[in-house]
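Sorry, can you check?
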Amino acid sequence: MPVISTLYTAGGVLQSSTAGVYTLADATTYYAEFEDVKNRALVSVHWKYSAALVAAITIEASNRYADEVYAYAAVGSGWATTSATTVSPAASAGETVAHYADFNAARLRAKIVVTTGGTLRGDTHVKEG
């Protein structure tokens, strides 16, 4: 199961992780493209977060090539919102497994809007059809 391996701030700054765990700052937006997910028909993401983290995690999609639209580009400039349910860590350590069905876009990413910083890890799994 691939770990989210690439995380950018909205300004395009690549973030580093420790064993797949990212430390997220207050009042910052991040983007994590699911690069290792080949068949997006049925995607599951296991989110694990610290007690401090308050954030909203939404899923966005694009049918544009990576050389046309960066992973951290804003919605409306190559990325579009989806109807996926928002995951909202709220200052309570925990884990959530979110299932995203019928995603057939060429690219898929998580938008993570942080209110209060903390740590976050995301592990992806694909249901092969």
DSSP finds no helices and nine strands in the chain. The two ends are 17 Å apart (CA to CA). The chain has a mean pLDDT of 89. The beta strands are 7-9, 22-24, 28-33, 42-49, 54-62, 80-81, 94-101, 107-116, 118-126.
